[in-house]
Design brief:
Two copies of one chain form a homodimer.
Chain A: H1 7-29, H2 40-56, E1 60-64, E2 71-76, E3 84-90, E4 110-112, E5 115-117, H3 125-142, E6 148-154, H4 162-170, E7 179-182, E8 194-199, E9 201-210, E10 216-217, H5 218-221, H6 228-238, H7 261-268, H8 274-280, H9 294-297, E11 303-312, E12 321-322, E13 325-334, H10 340-353, E14 360-369, E15 372-373, H11 379-392, E16 397-401, H12 406-415, E17 419-424, E18 438-440, H13 441-458, H14 461-464
Parallel strand pairs in A: 3-6, 3-7, 7-17, 8-16
Antiparallel strand pairs in A: 1-2, 2-6, 4-5, 5-18, 8-15, 8-17, 9-13, 9-14, 10-12, 11-13
Helix pairs in contact in A: 1-3, 1-13, 3-13, 4-12, 11-13
């Protein structure tokens, strides 16, 4: 592989570095917190800002509304024979609180120790912005970008992407693509970039049990009343085998796709330091399902967690009450090919089958998202890895994320895009959703480099030389 | 048994009925809610009101302070050879809320359907007041009360009786008594009065488990993090066998005194309608320990209840968090001869023995009270039963209450009083602690009658005739 012809990209990126960073700071100054309904103007401003940058690159497009925050959709057509890339990003950010834990104000981007500190620097304004600058550098160097490109940016990712999901269904025909590109994930570690080949899905639900008409006095009724907290504890304890960590809900593992030995071996080679991770989490050792490594348990295996539970008196002191109601919020992370709806039904059946006579159970679906997985032999994944190796100077790890990015599965499944490239430019410790969120300028530059190389590879520029 | 010599009592009570009720209404008008720190004046007024009534009966006494609400202690000495009765009552009442559920204002006593409606009418002003009027009638008819009497009234029963417990220890020598009399309990049903021969004790504690340094993201850490809610559910589920209802904590049943067959048979004869009770509580059937009737389970058997539990996210919607902390409030009702401190230690040991490695548990004692039991062959209990049969025209049931009146066990144990007479004048449905609390005038009269007869019997008046 001749790398020399990418030198022009790299030099351009170095040359423009100061301006690129300043421009990103402008973007980060817009306080687009999507959970705050009073930030409508910031949402519009963000969308306009993105659209303006794309128009400067000769994209045609506009701002669309599908109920909530504006959606930017812009495109450039090159030729019928070129592949079509769909680049997705979100411009909304998490709330900035707790404010007093920020060393510099969240919406006044500050450069410190080689990084830009601001809310959204990493998630997802900074990572998304790498695409805009890669396109700019590419166009400047090569004169033309020989790809069909669609850029889709939304402002509701942090609150569920409802408008975009609606929009996807409306505009399905216009969004037909070959390759789906998104950077809203993480590198493996501070030195090792990553190609994320899959995300776990999720199903989230709430159980409320009612054993009696109302709470009763434990002196007068203790011994004859059925305690809802006790029934719930018994039920929750039956969901999982505490020894092996296996989930005991019939049907839960039925659709789990076996993982290739090759992928398990690759994971093993990442040398995930379980003891160090346990220590950093304040645990003596990591927990979980027997028969799998920690790396496997947190990525390729499904899980079950009680996210919250409550019953009876929870104030200060004591109240000798026998609770009539008890509730729990539960979620399961799903792996291919588990389906949220079917898994929810398994839980409902399990609950119904394990209740004492006369107990009423309300099991309510909260939300779900499908797991996603890149096709294992996708040549584009290989091209992405080669590009990243050039851009970062180190080969990326292929990982599966244990988390769920709802909109990624929505886009992939709704638009049936065959190729999925999820490239993490942020370090795990960059503080997405936390105070002092930041993005390293060097990572930003390496990401832009990688993307320029990738555009060359995807357009067949290298082969044509 | 010649009942005719009690006719004079009964006639006097009938004659004075109007005045007795009016006077009780005056007492009920004083809004002595002990949990409201702004009601200090009402507390003083209540204590003064009681002391004035006692002084009119030639009692000597005064008002004492031991930290909180005033304590009334007054006495009359008859002779060294006469038995000494300690009559206990409390003048403080529960808060009146929810106010809008009262048909008439809680501190404006109202007569309706033969009952006095007011906060405290039943618990405990009305029931305690029967003693004051029985003493008045008795003295008027017999000229003298041939008993040594101590009346002890406090104003903190509804908030834990702390001052009185302090006072008991200070004045132990002055409070030496032979018979302890209190009416702060219930009749068995609206037609059947009751002699309560025992109360369950209690131990109440709080458990907090911590599995990790902080809550974690269920996507990124699901599979390796130890969920505190899960560990707590497992632990709570192990406390009791859900099939048999037996408490599985080693040592829990060790000191439980076997119940005499005679007492179990007597309970059986009460014909407690389990199906009707279940229906009224909104249950298909009553729950509890196998091998015991409902009446036994709620009175002579110890119990265990989760009074509250909480962990993780309990707000609206969902948050995919793995909780690092989970808590529960737990209480056990105890029977003779279980001791709160020893039982607490059993639970602590059980918790310590059932935790996964690395989990921290904080098990905190909240409060405890000893169970109490009347001596089974106490001749005074028989005399009380005979007196009640005369006063009410129906024999009382001998019952054990499943509840706990902390101060009763404190008084009995601190002062080591051999005889305990707990006589319930209020009907179970009289609404203690609830809106529209009331006390039937006919029950009030029958109680005063019963007490006059009892004073005759305890003083040996009948034998002397």
């Amino acid at each position: 592989m001749d790398k020399t012809n990418h030198t022009e990209f790299f030099e351009d990126i170095d040359r423009c570095s100061g301006r690129y960073v300043e421009e990103l700071c402008d973007f980060l100054r817009i306080p687009g917190v999507s959970s705050d309904s009073g930030r409508g103007r910031a949402m519009e401003e963000s969308a306009e800002w993105i659209l303006e940058k794309l128009r400067a690159l000769d994209f045609r497009g506009g701002i669309h509304f599908a109920g909530g925050s504006p959606i930017v959709m812009a495109r450039q057509e090159y030729s019928r024979s070129a592949p079509t890339l769909l680049i997705y990003g979100h411009y909304d950010v998490q709330p900035e609180d707790p404010l007093d834990e920020w060393k510099s104000p969240p919406f006044e981007p500050t450069l410190r120790d080689g990084a830009i500190y601001a809310r959204g620097a990493n998630d997802d304004k900074g990572q998304f912005y790498t695409y805009l600058k890669a396109l700019e550098t590419y166009k400047r160097i090569r004169g033309v970008i020989p790809l069909n490109l669609i850029v889709l940016a939304e402002g509701e990712e942090e609150i569920g992407s409802k408008s975009l999901m609606h929009f996807l269904n409306q505009k399905k025909d216009q969004l037909h693509s070959d390759i789906f590109l998104v950077s809203d994930s993480s590198m493996l570690s501070k030195d090792i970039p990553a190609v994320t080949c899959g995300f776990r899905g999720i199903v989230s639900f709430e159980i409320t049990l009612q054993t009696m008409a109302k709470d009763l006095h434990s002196g007068l009724f203790g011994g004859i009343a059925l305690n809802a907290a006790e029934v719930l504890s018994d039920l929750l304890a039956k969901l999982k085998d505490s020894g092996s960590g296996k989930i005991l809900v019939p049907g839960f593992y039925e659709d789990v796709r076996p993982v290739a030995e090759q992928e398990r071996r690759a994971m093993e080679q990442l040398n995930y330091d379980e003891a160090a991770v346990a220590k950093s989490l304040g645990m003596t050792k990591l927990s979980g399902e027997r028969g799998y490594s920690a790396m496997e348990r947190k990525s390729i295996r499904p899980t079950l967690d009680i996210n919250g539970m409550w019953s009876g008196f929870t104030g200060e002191g004591s109240k000798t009450v026998i609770p009539a109601r008890a509730s729990a919020k539960i979620s399961a992370r799903l792996v291919p090919d588990q389906q949220p709806d079917l898994i929810f039904q398994c839980f409902k059946d399990f609950v119904a089958g394990h209740l004492p006579a006369g107990v009423k159970a309300d099991v309510r679906y909260l939300f779900g998202a499908m797991p996603v997985l890149a096709e294992i032999d996708d040549p584009n994944v290989r091209l992405a890895a080669e590009s990243i190796e050039e851009g970062f100077g180190v080969a990326p790890a292929f990982i599966r994320s244990g988390g769920t990015i709802h909109i990624i599965s929505e886009i992939k499944n709704t638009l049936k895009i065959p190729s999925m490239l999820i490239l993490g430019w942020g370090r795990p410790e960059n503080g997405s959703h936390s105070p002092n969120e930041h993005f390293y300028i060097s990572d930003f530059q390496k990401a832009v480099r990688s993307l320029c190389v990738l555009f060359d590879k995807l357009s067949g520029h290298e082969e044509k030389r």
